[in-house]
Write a structure and sequence with these properties.
mainly alpha
């Protein structure tokens, strides 16, 4: 899940304008980028939740795994975030093209 949240940031939130391990920055990809407070809240919450299961406790005191219901809620939240970001990025692109930005 943590890797997926990181890909959401790279591929959806920043529309692949900046990617890990890549030397170039694709400024034309910014056409579809708009970051809102809800994005920050959702990404921060998702990453924080995933970090509870990857960084806490160590081998002597591993964190408990999420219950199936909790995992289902986490997946639903991730899916809703992805769908919202995809829809918004298309709207942002359309709006900017109408305004003549990135002609």
């Amino acid at each position: 899940m943590r890797d997926t949240w990181e890909l959401v940031v790279e591929d959806l939130l920043f529309n692949a304008s900046v990617k890990r391990f890549k030397r170039s920055i694709n400024t034309q990809q910014l056409l579809k980028v708009e970051v809102g407070d809800d994005d920050i809240k959702e990404v921060f919450g998702g990453m924080t939740r995933c970090s509870m299961f990857t960084h806490e406790g160590g081998a002597e005191d591993p964190p408990p795994l999420p219950s199936p219901d909790d995992l289902d809620q986490d997946l639903t939240a991730l899916t809703e975030t992805v769908e919202r970001m995809k829809s918004r990025s298309d709207d942002v692109e359309r709006r900017r093209k109408e305004k003549g930005i990135f002609a």
